[in-house]
Design brief:
The chain has 479 residues and is mainly beta. Helix content is 10%, strand content 29%.
Length: 479
């Protein structure tokens, strides 16, 4: 098992690998860093107590801007981030390490970022000291956080490391929604307790009062990386286009102990980004995550809406000890096949020891002669596309009331009672139909699809309540 996997495994078992408190006035020393290893430089960032012109090299000279710290860092550096909301240079709404979509020319850097510190950096608790990226009225066309970390092709030196730990990614204050109104079915408000009406997709304009600002297709966390990569102890909530969307080069990615809730498109999608000869050098471990309420691409519920997607270009993928619940298409999707038959035969799509509940389907498979096949948790061992590990998948056992109670009750009730209402109308006297009759074309009608709920805003503060509610499954209490 790789070093980063050992760290996360120990974290989930409750081992303390570093002191959460430091005696020095300058905060934790290199020896007590969250990664448990020394670094060339540690940068300190606090949006509330830092200074715009500080060097960030100590807790007492913390920077104010996380983007500035990223720009200053070099390979191997670590960044400690105190509680607060971080919106990039001049509050533009997003943060980047390397330019989005241009990793070939802007290779970024191998750095580690840890949120969840108190403003004096004496204590780290990612639940108590919330470090978030939560834009409001900012307009941008970029992921909330983009990270590039690639080496030139043919590089044979040591692998670099990338860590994202203890951040909250929330689009909820930026998204465009219908205003909540249980008496107006256009709004998609299932009950009085849900914060908003339905999410409004790009190009849609329902006849109802609106709240919020934007409805584009920006990712929450996008990565084009390689080496040793870990994303842990994070919350992805109200994400309008993936929680995590990543391209992975040679190396190992570990996604552990995160909460994904009310994300659109998919909660997590990682594609291999290597030549066929190097696929055997790419692996992914997705474990101890809680994945709830993933929504489809549009309100018609036609496509997307997956919790986790098995993608191509990765030799070994392990998905285990997660909780998948209330995903509007499927909890897990395995529908892509390598174009090279030999590569497909060598592929390991391991899905084991997971809990499932109230998903439209637990596992979705591609199949000859059918669009897809729906597989229940109890039948996963019969799916030949899964394996060699496939044991231990099951419905969420009874007795987990504490976990279910931690889910926002109004949101859960709305989802469990979800209905999609479709109606059609035909107006023979419309101008369009008059012209069609004159030209000998078919008459046209309109179809209206109104779900009782679709990608409504989830209260981000309540997402924190889901840590540690089921022992050994889903996101555990961060240590």
């Amino acid at each position: 098992m790789k070093k980063l996997s050992l760290f996360c495994a120990a974290l989930l078992l409750g081992a303390t690998l570093h002191p959460l408190r430091a005696s020095s006035d300058e905060g934790p020393s290199d020896a007590t860093s969250p990664a448990g290893a020394t670094s060339t430089t540690i940068y300190y960032v606090s949006v509330s107590t830092g200074s715009a012109r500080a060097d960030g090299l100590s807790a007492s000279t913390a920077m104010k801007d996380l983007q500035k710290a990223i720009d200053a860092a070099t390979d191997g550096d670590q960044i400690y981030v105190a509680e607060g909301n971080y919106l990039g240079n001049l509050n533009r709404g997003y943060i980047q390490s390397g330019r989005f979509g241009n990793a070939q020319n802007d290779r970024g850097k191998f750095i580690s970022i840890y949120g969840g510190f108190s403003t004096d950096f004496r204590e780290r608790d990612v639940i108590k000291y919330v470090t978030k990226i939560q834009p409001t009225d900012q307009s941008f066309i970029a992921p909330l956080f983009n990270i590039n970390a690639r080496r030139p092709y043919g590089y044979n030196g040591p692998e670099g490391s990338v860590v994202v730990d203890g951040l909250v990614f929330d689009f909820g204050e930026n998204n465009l929604y219908c205003k909540a109104d249980v008496n107006n079915e256009v709004t998609g408000t299932p009950n009085e307790g849900v914060l908003t009406g339905r999410f409004i997709e790009l190009g849609a304009s329902p006849a109802c009062p609106k709240e919020g600002y934007r409805n584009g297709d920006e990712y929450a966390l996008h990565m084009d990386v390689e080496g040793n990569v870990r994303i842990s102890n994070c919350i992805f909530v109200n994400c309008r286009d993936y929680g995590i969307s990543a391209l992975m080069g040679k190396g190992h990615m570990e996604i552990c102990n995160n909460i994904f809730i009310a994300c659109r498109y998919a909660a997590c999608q990682v594609k291999g980004n290597v030549r066929d000869d190097d696929i055997e050098k790419v692996s992914l471990d997705f474990h101890h995550n809680t994945v709830l309420f993933t929504w489809t691409r549009t309100k018609t519920f036609e496509d997307m809406g997956q919790g986790f997607r098995f993608m191509n270009g990765i030799r070994t993928v392990d998905v285990h000890n997660n909780i998948f619940g209330c995903n509007s298409n499927c909890a897990v999707e395995r529908v892509y096949y390598e174009s090279n038959k030999k590569m497909e035969e060598l592929k390991q799509s391991n899905l084991y020891d997971n809990y499932f509940f109230a998903n439209r389907r637990d596992l979705e498979l591609a199949a000859p002669g059918a669009a897809t096949i729906s597989v229940s948790a109890a039948q996963i061992e019969e799916a030949e596309q899964i394996g060699p590990k496939y044991e231990g998948n099951m419905d969420l056992p009874e007795g987990n009331d504490e976990f279910l109670s931690a889910i926002d009750e109004a949101y859960l009730q709305g989802f469990m009672a979800l209905k999609i209402i479709s109606s059609q109308s035909y107006d023979a006297s419309s101008t369009a139909n008059a012209i069609n009759r004159m030209l000998g074309l078919n008459q046209q009608g309109t179809e209206i699809v109104r779900p009782t709920m679709y990608c409504n805003k989830y209260p981000w503060e309540k997402a924190k309540d889901l840590f540690g509610k089921v022992e050994g499954y889903g996101a555990q209490i961060p240590r």
